[in-house]
Specification:
The chain is α/β, with parallel strands linked by helices and 474 residues long. The protein is built from 18 helices and 13 strands. Strands 3-10-9-8-7-4-5-6 form an eight-stranded mixed β-sheet, sandwiched between helices.
Length: 474
């Protein structure tokens, strides 16, 4: 055994770790049996052509973990462990999931992280890296205790104040900073709210088709999903009431429905709020990319129609900056703000305070506002290039659904299976997910999602041409 071990050692790597792993594995597998004597450290070092200190370090660690025993004159021996127990431990299967875990693992994964036309992906090429690095570095150098401890679990106060100013100016939402929770992106907010407001088994209305991340958050909390179909006016409230008249939670993307892009009509908004009031349900409004409006005035959020505090407004900085920053927020109704802030201490959904502080500085110094203005211009150019290219090259295959906001469009296919179309596109190097992958039951809309924010304008048409060729061939 030891000759084979000597030959297997990689002299360019850490010999101590390699030797430890090899001896530990030999003991667990039974190749070194209980009570078997090991060579003396000096002899083993010579046989393996390693330093004696390396062998002594390995013996010391194995002894501390109970694998071997030093018996003085009797030498160093393998501990007398039950061989049958060792075998069972080594052969015991792993990977058993809970029922919720199996459902979560079965939800289709998101799109690849780059390329045309990944939906929801912002212009990472325009991320203000130098400014961000300077602000983050400054905060790290300051090393203030308040940013390094357990305080401010519901959010860094200056950032909450900056968010309050931002949503008041951009969305007309006027709230006290104390009502804002800073979360690990919108996804963290959804997961936290599901646990805070619902018990396992509680029904939740979910748009169908709808956002896969919301589905995952609610499945993870053990909620009963109630798919509610979406049509040209958004969530069909009457259909939702027919399926479940007493939801505990209602999830909706009213300003720019995901993934179709339709807007929830005023009549539907009022009906939804009435249904929530009658059921004593909470409404979670995911305002995921409404910073970007390309035609007409920005729509008022659902939050502003609910004076009794029935709506929780969720937002993210992932679409304006970068998803990997994991920075989002939830605007809590007055009755929930206090309990939610306390619960956040234990919910594990708060991003690092130093990142929050850097974002607060980024906003306070005016960088965020100027970045948004730049993105609005760039995204408008990229969106226009996509619309023109689709009209020119994809008219035989589909029609873009109207959407005046956001960073992706939906192409409704005239015919065929949208999953097969998405596969054909992927074969051509184009990421255009099928709308049906976001559906639980509603298969009425077959199409492809086309995100344009991350694709430079001069690369849009060549990508659309490749997509058209793939659809023709498929």
């Amino acid at each position: 055994m030891y000759d084979a071990l000597a030959a297997a050692l990689d002299r360019g790597q850490g010999l101590t770790r390699q030797l430890y792993e090899a001896l530990r594995t030999a003991i667990l597998s039974g190749r070194l049996g209980p009570g078997e004597r090991l060579p003396a450290s000096r002899d083993l070092a010579r046989r393996l052509d390693v330093g004696r200190n390396t062998v002594l370090a390995v013996f010391e660690r194995l002894a501390a973990e109970g694998f071997i025993e030093a018996r003085g004159a009797a030498g160093t021996r393998v501990a007398r462990l039950d061989p049958a127990l060792l075998q069972r431990v080594q052969q015991a299967p792993g990977g058993r999931l809970s029922g919720r875990g199996r459902v979560l693992a079965a939800i289709e994964r998101g799109s690849p992280s780059n390329g045309a036309f990944v939906p929801g992906l912002p212009a990472l090429d325009l991320f203000p890296g130098e400014v961000w690095a300077r602000l983050l570095g400054r905060r790290l150098r300051q090393g203030k205790a308040a940013l390094l401890g357990f305080e401010h679990t519901s959010g860094w106060p200056p950032l909450k104040e900056a968010i309050a100013r931002q949503i008041a100016a951009s969305r007309g939402i006027v709230v006290e900073p104390e009502r804002i929770l800073v979360t690990t992106g919108a996804q963290g907010a959804l997961a936290f709210l599901a646990q805070l407001l619902c018990d396992p088994g509680d029904p939740v209305w979910l748009e169908d088709p709808g956002y896969l991340g919301a589905r995952g958050a609610f499945v993870g909390a053990g909620l009963a999903l109630v798919p509610v179909p979406v049509d040209g006016e958004g969530l069909d409230v009457a259909a939702g009431l027919a399926r479940e008249a007493a939801p505990r939670l209602i999830y909706v993307t009213p300003s720019h429905q995901y993934p179709t892009g339709v807007v929830l009509s005023l009549a539907r908004r009022l009906a939804l709020l009435q249904a929530a009031e009658q059921a004593d349900a909470w409404v979670v409004e995911d305002d995921y990319d409404s910073e970007f409006q390309f035609a007409g005035p920005p729509l008022a959020p659902l939050h502003n129609l609910a004076p009794k505090g029935r709506v929780i407004h969720v937002g993210t900085f992932g679409k304006a900056l970068a998803p990997a920053l994991r920075l989002g927020y939830a605007v809590m109704p007055p009755a929930l703000a206090g309990p939610a802030a306390v619960a956040m201490r234990h919910g594990g959904q708060a991003p690092p305070l130093v990142m929050q502080a850097a974002l607060a500085d980024f906003m306070a110094e005016g960088h965020f506002a100027s970045h948004l203005r730049r993105l609005q211009d760039v995204y408008g150019e990229r969106r226009a290039a996509l619309v023109e290219a689709c009209d020119r090259h994809l008219a035989d295959y589909g029609t873009l659904l109207p959407a005046e906001a956001g960073i992706q469009l939906a192409l409704r296919l005239h015919r065929g299976d949208d999953r097969r179309a998405a596969q054909a596109a992927a074969g051509a190097g184009i990421i255009a997910p099928a709308l049906s992958r976001a559906a639980l039951e509603n298969r009425a809309i077959a199409g492809l999602q086309l995100g344009f924010a991350a694709v430079p304008a001069d690369r849009v048409e060549p990508a659309v041409i490749r997509l058209a060729e793939a659809l023709k061939a498929g």
